[in-house]
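Give me structure tokens for this 112-residue protein.
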Amino acid sequence: MLLIVGLGNPGRDYAHTPHNLGFEVIERLARAARVHKRERRAQSRLWRARLDARSVLLAQPQTMWSYSSGVDVQGYLVEQLSGQPLGEFLQEQIFGPLGMVDTAFYVPPDKM
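Here you go.
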């Protein structure tokens, strides 16, 4: 069985926002598999489905998640341990080797 988890935040305040892209993906997969019955277990919405002849469990956890200051601390630690600014480290160690040529922390004005 394959488990596919779509992250998001429950509630109307987050419906149809980028925060809930994971929820949207799970709902579309459920519709594609023609599964309409949903269970509620383990603080999640769950669908049992078959996609491409595989048994799949689709899940939407119903607990809140958010970016925290912990992400800032991680960035600071990477900078201190590598001796490089975070953006430079990510480019050299991750984005470059993966061929990610259009990745940044912001959208440059010429791409807006």
